[in-house]
Amino acid sequence: MRLLLDTQVFLWMVAGSHRMPGALRERVCARDVSVWLSAASVWELAIKQGLGRIDLPGPAAEFAIAERTRHRITALPIDEAAIAHLPKLPDIHSDPFDRLLVCQAIEHELTLVSADRILRRYPIKTLWAGEES
Question: Quick one: pLDDT at residue 93?
Answer without folding.
Answer: 82
